[in-house]
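input
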Amino acid sequence: MRITSFVPAILVTAALVHAQESQPVALTIYNQSFAVARTSIDLDLHAGINEITTSRVTSMLEPDSVVLRDPTGKRAIQVVEQNYDAAVVSQEWLLEKYEGKTIDFQVTTPQGMQTVAGKIIRAGFNRQPAYTFDGQYQNGQQAQPLIEVNGKMQFQLPGLPLFPSATDGLLLKPTLRWQIDSGAAAHFSAELAYITGGLDWDATYNIVAPESSDVTGNEKSDVLGWVTIHNQSGTEFPQARIKLMAGDVAKIQPPNGGYGRGTVYAMGAVAGIQAAQPQVTQKAFDDFHLYDLNRTVALRDGETKQVQFIDAANVSMQRTYIYDGLNAQIQPIFGGNVNQNRGYGLDNENTKVMVVEEIKNSEANHLGMPLPAGRVRLYRRDADGQMEFVGESAINHTPTEETLKVPTGSAFDLKGSRRQTEFHIDFNRREIDENFEIKLTNQKQQPVNVKVIEHMYRGDNWEITNKSSDYTKRDSQTIEFPVQVAAKGEDTVTYSVHYTW
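output
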């Protein structure tokens, strides 16, 4: 891929200068499959037009995001022309470059290895490559190669192509080239910043719970948090200072869903390199959160790197059981009407009782760091001390003082049932009365507390007219009954609801 931006200028003098590597690359990686990279390059300019090149970029760079400036603000860098070439040498790239020319092909014959001459009529493969920055093929022309051998055409390569050693434009790395117009000789370190695809990160949390909880469901657990960084940018970073941005940053995506050039509305995330600290730190940045690894690491192309950022012990975790007998996204009727179908919502009865672990993200609970979205895995120690996997779930970004809720599955020894016991509709008075019975059974050796969730889904005007126990109103359409079910026992909740319209 070659992209050129051009500003008319008179080419007075040109001298090729290779930008020198000086400092580690600073990367701010977003969990939306892109990153902002910042590095420093030495510019040794003479008066007039200078040709500057650097390979300190990725093969998924967004060319129109490039910023080249003097970080001290003392000099204005006048870029006359910028060229970006990500066409790193490959067999397909060379075949296309030699279209219309004759090269040798190495073939295997009964007499041994020989070479035959073939004219490349059409390179085939992917003419004008069009890969998205996440590595997906898009809009390319997957044509067969067409080679002329001994005056005849064939739709395959006759053998291994052997290319001349002197090939113009041979690139081993993605390259940026500038023509910079300088009014006088100058030598200084410039800052290069750009947006690139191919870099991503996510968070994972491992919770290790004890063998059992107390009678209230409370247990002291260990929480380990990891950030996992993925580098598919096509570029290796021998020295990288890495920060991670958590939050949903606005990022323009091109048509067809590919990762293309665009605008990022948090360019200030390319922050200065700070002195190394012993552990991962975080701070609020704009309306997001920025996590700093506080050390220089090597990030190789194709590598997945993991860094621990949370190690908390004695974290209080509350096990909660939830029974939602409806177990379906039934849409309530709004606007003063009701659903008059007696069987509405009765076809999706659920018998499973969900297990949910709740953790308060607070300093008092040995946490208190804003937690980026990710996967949570729960392990529990057996009587012999061995850890067993007991469930996992995904969480959203969780601020401090919020409660982390992790569904881990359905309880084996708890069952629920829900049935409609009465339904009466009076069209003249425009009202419905409906009764329900919810039964819970517990085969455990200890009592459990279960939250029974019920939805008032027939309409928005409702009233509970009778109930077997008190309830809490969660929202305008949902109520919750707290129920304690005895060991090897059962309990029943009944209620009546009155709808009007």
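quick obs: The CA atoms of residues 211 and 385 lie 8 Å apart.
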